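Ticket #4471: structure export looks truncated?
Reporter: QA, pipeline team
Priority: medium

Steps to reproduce: submit the single chain below to the structure queue and open the exported record.
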Amino acid sequence: MYEFLKGVGFLVLAAVFAASAAAEEPVKLTIGWAVAPAQLTPILFDHPGLAKHLGKSYTLEPERFVGSSVALQALATGELNVGPMTFNVLGPAVLPSGAGLTDLRIIADELRDGVGDYESNHYMVRNDGPIHRVEDLKGKVVAVNGIGGGQDIFMRVMLKRHGLVYPGDYTIVEAQFPTMKGLLADNKADLIIGVKPFTEDPALKAIGHDLFTQRDAVGPSDFLFLTARAGFIAQHRAALVDFFEDDIRATRWFMNPANHDEAVAIAAKFIKMPPERLSWAFTKSDFYRDPNLRPDLAGIQKNVDMLQDFGFIKAHVDVKAHSDLSLITEAAKRIQ
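Actual output as written to the record:
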């Protein structure tokens, strides 16, 4: 009997130690991204010493997706823990008539357009063309990267303000950003969307100029933010706070002018581009990044309301109710 009990005791202790070891395993964070260096995720910790908690409370696995809608599907299936989101995907994501992810929460910021002197997306026309005012687009063709996407909605807002309403007054075609220059050069579109790094192309600068910017259309806008599901947040709160502490530290490092040359070199190596073609990155010629990763919820709400105004979503979405900023609030306090 003694030997039996001794054996049972050994098994119990082994189970306890195994459970304890499992509990101490770092949480695997799979975080989505689409475009670098606009999104820092795949290069976030390439400078040594920024990630104090990496490998201890969490591990990081960046996962590339073509856009927010695909990242949303990965969040729904659990393939992603944390997913980048744009306002035009948030509404359909959380509404019962859409994806129905009512537990989706905005937890941190990534990029904002048109803040102060920082970069804003461009809506461009030909230098030698007939378009001199927004009103001149009546009967013309405009190219967007996706119907119902952010740049499409912002363009429609600007044109509507000048008396032009889709589809009666103009035609929309879809095109990827790398092909926009060709559409303008070949007169297949009268207005295109220009984003970096494509707007730095000397050939595009030679044929086109801004008719207006995204800032002109809608003012500053919170363009890209991070989301996670409430259950994952509750289960792994401590690890997420640790990650965002490291994320804030890294974001501030990248945006520090003293680190500009090294930051550009890191980004250039990752995307395989000469550093001199990325000199604008992490400056005011780039998008704005909040030093505490704090989203502009009021700005996101304004943009989501635009979706309802244009009929892309059928019901109101309360952005604040789908947000949890406690993680970044706690993380920022650690490194003030």
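Status: closed, not a bug. The export was complete when the record was re-opened. Leaving a note from the reviewer for reference: The chain has two domains: 6-116+221-334, 122-218.
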